[in-house]
Sequence to fold (150 residues):
Amino acid sequence: MNSLEKALRTVRSQMRFEVALAAARVSEAADATDHAHSRVNALTQQCADIDKELRRATQQPSIDPAPLAMIQNFLQFELRSLERWQKQLEAAKEFEYESRAELARLRHHDRSLEGAVKKAHGAQESERRKDDFIAADDLWLQHSSRVLVL
Fold:
């Protein structure tokens, strides 16, 4: 293994480490996106249920304003919470997208390094084969000259 191949293998090892770290970031980002998505879905359903209860309460013949106000306040609280989680979901999606793009970039770079290592190894292997052929030719010439001398 020549110095170029050693250097390329060292750089590729570092690149593989970076790819592994990027893959872990993608996994964490995907988990965060899934969690935010679950919260948004749950809060959406909860807000719909509270809104349904509020509509039902307002259709009662005798409306007690205290529970009605409490339901309205609770709905407002849940809607604000839903809005926050929707923003978190969008941020999580963006971070996941960026993380996946970075992982793709690093994988592409790793594949390029892999090709360079193979090329360097192939060039070294080609040089070794050439040397082997020269040595074989020398042996054949030595053997041929002995046969001619006899």
About this structure: The helical segments are 3-58, 65-149. The chain has one domain: 3-119. Residues 4 and 120 are 7 Å apart (CA to CA). DSSP finds two helices and no strands in the chain.
